[in-house]
Amino acid sequence: MAVLERHLTLYKRLWRASLFSSFLLPLLFLVSIGLGVGGYVGTVEGVPYVEWIVPGVLASTAFQMAVGECTYSVLGEFKWTRGAHAMFATRVSAWDMVRGWMLYIVFRVEVAAVVFLAVVAAFGVLASPWAVVTLLVVGLLAVACAAPVSAFSASIDHDSYFALLFRFVMIPSTLFAGVFFPVEQLPELVRPLAYASPLWHGVELCRAATLGVAPPWPAWVHLGYLLAFAVAGLWWAAFSFRKRLQD
Amino acid sequence: MVTLMVARQVSVGRVGAVVGRNLGALRSGASYWLVLVSGFFEPLLYLLSIGVGVGALVGRIPLGDGRVVSYAVFVAPAMLAASAMNGALAETTFNFFFKMKYAKTFEAILATPVRPIEVALGELTWAMVRSSFYTAAFLLVMAVMGLAEPWWALAAFPATMLVGVAFGAAGMAVSTFLRGWQDFDLMTAAQFSLFLFSGTFAPVGGYPPVLAVVVQVTPLYHAVELVRGLALGRVEWALAGHALYLAALAALGLWVASRRIQRVLCS
């Protein structure tokens, strides 16, 4: 809890810079692709294109925040500001740091998700009251992605790996995990890559919720996959935080 | 007049030395190379996802001159223009700012006979080289995927160089005003908004009139129109207007940047 409080205090000073990426960007995306391109698309799987991509943009925003927030900030805590070492010198353990950090990420994601949902609801693009369930989904998705990325950030020594993480993991996931078009359109060979991405499971769960339909796979499979990802990620994060703190 | 003044101050050799320094810095390590090379994949991924994936949903799209093309053909030139912009900006914003503020590279350079305008020209040339690598590779992909006739792809290449110069110069001018890394959020915000709304993903004609006017004032719109016109073999007078806009932006950016380097570092 003390760790969460520390991050929130820091965030109080930095929140303005994140306004764009967490609130404005998803809406701009929605206007540009959803309305702009949507005007030419018509309907997908029986619903207007805007309604179809709203849950995708919601989930991918959570995903991008989770990944983005856990790169420079995490490496920085160990390498540049050595804030993690300072915490470790008090009675905070590595596992406490991981938990506090995850709570902070979930807080950020939930705030962004609530604002986003409120705006799209005001425009009447939510088809089902089940849409509130997406708040739980994006929280789980955020942990499933934030935990392994934090672990990765804590175990590398140079920040140029992040450019590669963004270009070869984050952007391809965003573009090909069913956010903008159904993954069934992908060639059969690469489709398993989309299925392997936690984002795809998050997107499909959110889509099922906002449209009020059943997800493509049983809901418990999607949830189980995200949960497994989160647990493994947390374990790895605690491990690599602990290891890093010994240097 | 301005050209004359510039010509009197500038030596090609000294500008070349600034470019050469950047070239030498490439030897600093494999990680920089990886970042450089991976920059090419970004527009390609967008092309595959939005162009081909969403394109399958869109079907065909009207060009405005009576022709109707597949969505991928429509989007590809826009991704190309955006790639030229991003390549040039990556060099003249993040790298330029670092060299100006933290590495003190320019202070070192200016201690030699090199002048501020030559620093600006050298950095700009380097930015253009970087963006040209991206666009050349991308044009090749477009030709191979059948998204542009090879000859028109060749014709579009100089246009992408102009786009690189214009955005490189503008980015450099902006960088001299940035106070710290936090300001980069604003810059990337602006860059991304341009990317989303400059007639890249949907024709500007479909926008609400007010938004359409705003878009037509911003630079990436002109870059996209110019590159798209050439890549699709649609030559008309409007292209000259777009090119002129970009050239003016380049000149203005260069002028402001060299003035600012002079003011900040030489006084």
TrEMBL record, chain B:
Sorted keywords for this record are: Antibiotic resistance, Cell membrane, Membrane, Transmembrane, Transmembrane helix, Transport
Q: What is its main location?
A: membrane
| Keyword Transmembrane included in the entry's annotation | yes
Protein's cellular compartments: Cell membrane; Membrane
Task: Show the stretches that span the lipid bilayer.
Answer: 31-56, 68-90, 133-153, 159-181, 193-217, 237-257
| Bilayer topology annotation | Multi-pass membrane protein
Keyword Membrane found: yes
Specify the ABC transmembrane type-2 domain's residue ranges: 34-264
Q: Which Pfam families match?
A: ABC2_membrane
Give the family this protein belongs to, as stated in its UniProt record.
Answer: Belongs to the ABC-2 integral membrane protein family.
> What is the protein's name according to its record?
Transport permease protein
Organism for this UniProt entry: Nonomuraea africana
